[in-house]
User: Which sequence fits this backbone?
């Protein structure tokens, strides 16, 4: 038993102390090994069990104004982060799109990458509210496996990214994701008040999302499959590729089924 506890302690120290980026040690939620897993667990329990049971004999809440304000916040937050990331890539003449290592140095650029990765992580926590709104509005059919999986995995991966790879090759994931979310939350607001522009955004979103997943699968898959080593951890290339490819396949399946259902209705 003592040997097992010793191995667990050694593994924890190696994972959470020795292997992590020491520059992030003072950031809230990052220094703890249990807070983020607890947030994910509470999220899953709330949207899958507690929330639906709470709403079972209640009317759907009218949250239009709250949701509009929340969507506006997401548009501004994601938009600000997108332009900050775009600017940083623009001024970096050494950014390598084939394989980019993380800048762990105490330089201005190194800390900018770290703080942008951390800001992205915080946005992923706030985005869990999306699902809570579905539950409170009694739209449980929107709480799909893909929706819940995506929110859970993105929060978990962004937390681990702040710990171990705050920047580098994952940078384009944040760039893509923040841009898509600006359009997504703008669509939500237009749809909320039945704007005629909502239809245009609705047709644009699937194309942007598919383009995002295809490009990210290539972006992470190329160095993973070809074994291109630039100092960026190979395991993260494989994680990025597998997640982008998995969500791409799941999204394609949804879009194809939706298209076939529309075709049947028109026939």
Assistant:
């Amino acid at each position: 038993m003592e040997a097992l506890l010793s191995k667990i302690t050694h593994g924890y120290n190696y994972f959470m102390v020795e292997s992590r980026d020491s520059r992030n040690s003072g950031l809230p939620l990052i220094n703890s090994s249990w807070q983020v897993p607890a947030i994910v667990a509470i999220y899953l329990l709330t949207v899958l069990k507690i929330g639906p049971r709470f709403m079972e004999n209640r009317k759907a809440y009218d949250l239009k104004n709250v949701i509009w304000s929340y969507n506006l916040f997401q548009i501004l937050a994601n938009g600000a982060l997108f332009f900050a990331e775009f600017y940083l890539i623009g001024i970096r003449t050494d950014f390598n799109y084939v394989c980019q290592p993380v800048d762990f140095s105490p330089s201005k650029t190194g800390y900018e990458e770290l703080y942008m990765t951390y800001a992205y992580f915080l946005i992923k926590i706030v985005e869990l509210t999306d699902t809570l709104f579905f539950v409170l509005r009694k739209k449980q059919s929107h709480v799909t496996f893909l929706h819940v999986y995506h929110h859970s995995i993105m929060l978990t991966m962004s937390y681990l990214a702040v710990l171990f790879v705050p920047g580098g090759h994952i940078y384009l994931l944040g760039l893509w994701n923040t841009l898509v979310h600006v359009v997504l939350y703008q669509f939500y607001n237009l749809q909320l008040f039945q704007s005629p522009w909502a239809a245009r955004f609705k047709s644009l979103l699937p194309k942007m999302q598919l383009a995002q997943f295809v490009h990210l699968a290539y972006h992470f898959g190329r160095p993973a499959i070809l074994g291109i080593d630039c100092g960026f951890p190979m395991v993260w290339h494989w994680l990025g590729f597998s997640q982008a490819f998995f969500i791409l396949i799941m999204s394609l399946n949804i879009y194809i089924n939706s298209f076939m259902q529309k075709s049947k209705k028109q026939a």
